[in-house]
């Protein structure tokens, strides 16, 4: 009953409005035309005089006294049909840029053309398009926007193409000779149309020779309006609200992003798109799980201009929209790798070595950016050593004049991951060359307790050699310094053996103390003579006599059971180079 009431309320106004402008109430309606849920009581002879389609329907009907027609498929629905029959009855109504496309399509559907009747609806709407609607960019865009619900007939009668061509021509003219402020106002106008029509406009602008920067400006504005929650605004501020997209919306936005990326023009020597915009597009592609073709195209564009990328641009790719979780770093790896491969190709073309690209300004910039980027992500707990080293090793060794920035990133990583053992810390430090540290960095490294002993010894050796050769620690490594690597490695091995032996002795001491404590608990009257040798203390003494570092650390051969053991580190041997 409620549904019937709702339909009645919708039908009654249409019938009432029709009764108000039907030219004579003395002549009863002889046909009822239904459009959707609306019904229109009308007169056949007036409709047949203007509409060849209605005339044919009546003539081809098996019932010569046809009193009912269904025109629910008419473009524009009941509202536009009402205006069309007003035209048949000679009732004035207003044609605007918002309804002219629908009226033109309805005239085509009803065959209300000038061939059938002079001065018909089709001719009137065509005149309005030429004289009013398609004389400005705004008018063309509004008409084009209204065509979204009029397909495919709007394309068949060429309304879409006419609007596209005029919009493209006006946009190119405004880009070259702005007529109002701000100069890029025309990009806002284009951003309201559907992506399909926008793609047609961009294609037309390209065919007219529009500059890549002009095309880029239109695409950026359109993207910011179409994907406001996934792309940063022009001030560089990211979205603060949490992003929650359901499945249907995600599919729609994924298709939209694919279409936008396909519109990006071929880059010339000058980058047309801001790096931050490309980074945001790639982050959105990762978030929306776009196909590899879309993501790789964006990665290739960023890689081509990586020398101009900042740390913030790379961080856009690395974190989720809330900035709390680390994204997959594979895109960043591919971007850096692509740039290095490009530099290698250029090096080979210039007669260099493919294995080591030539040291260019661009390579130096990228090396500093990558090291600074590593320092930013090093604090993330879930960042593994393999991923950290994988990114660091993408930059060729000769691309860093000094390893200070890389050392800073390593130090941050070690500080953020305090539970790493000696071997793991050595793996982290393996990407760095201690001999390429500046004097200040070597001083810091020599006092850094987080570094493995191997790195500390490297720093101390090189620093001593530099002082002796009066280089003040600021010149490039000398051949003598580089030749000392083997000696440092040997000393490191000895130091490791010493540390291992001390660890075994401490474990043995702890084991003996544990047994003594258990004996004291079992028998309170019996006391263990601390001077009485036991089996384990004898073993400990024998092991102490075999200590190869007897003179380099404390002699453990006189350790007696029950006595406290001095756990201080052995005095480091002075590595003299005299």
Defining traits:
3 strands; 26 helices; 578 residues; mainly alpha; three-stranded mixed sheet; disordered C terminus; Potassium Channel Kv1.1, Chain A; disordered N terminus
Short description:
By secondary structure, this protein is mostly helical. Helix content is 58%, strand content 2%.
Note the topology.
Blueprint (H helix, E strand, L loop, with lengths): L1 H20 L9 E5 L2 E5 L1 H7 L1 H9 L7 E3 L6 H13 L10 H11 L10 H11 L5 H10 L6 H4 L2 H18 L8 H6 L4 H13 L4 H15 L20 H17 L11 H14 L3 H13 L6 H8 L11 H20 L11 H17 L7 H8 L11 H13 L5 H8 L9 H8 L6 H16 L10 H5 L1 H38 L12 H11 L33
Parallel strand pairs: 1-3
Antiparallel strand pairs: 1-2
Organism: Helianthus annuus (Common sunflower)
Keywords: Phosphoprotein, Ubl conjugation pathway
Protein name: Putative phototropic-responsive NPH3 family protein
Please describe what this structure looks like:
The protein has 578 residues and is mainly α. Among the domains are: 13-112, Potassium Channel Kv1.1, Chain A (2-Layer Sandwich), CATH 3.30.710.10; 134-208, no CATH class; 358-470. It contains 26 helices and three strands. The protein has helices at residues 2-21, 44-50, 52-60, 77-89, 100-110, 121-131, 137-146, 153-156, 159-176, 185-190, 195-207, 212-226, 247-263, 275-288, 292-304, 311-318, 330-349, 361-377, 385-392, 404-416, 422-429, 439-446, 453-468, 479-483, 485-522, 535-545; strands at 31-35, 38-42, 68-70. Strands 2-1-3 form a three-stranded mixed sheet. A hairpin with a 2-residue loop joins strand 1 and strand 2 (38-42). Helix 15 packs across helix 17 and helix 16 crosses helix 18. The N and C termini lie far apart (108 Å). Residues 1-12, 233-242, 470-475, 525-529 and 548-578 have low confidence and may be disordered.
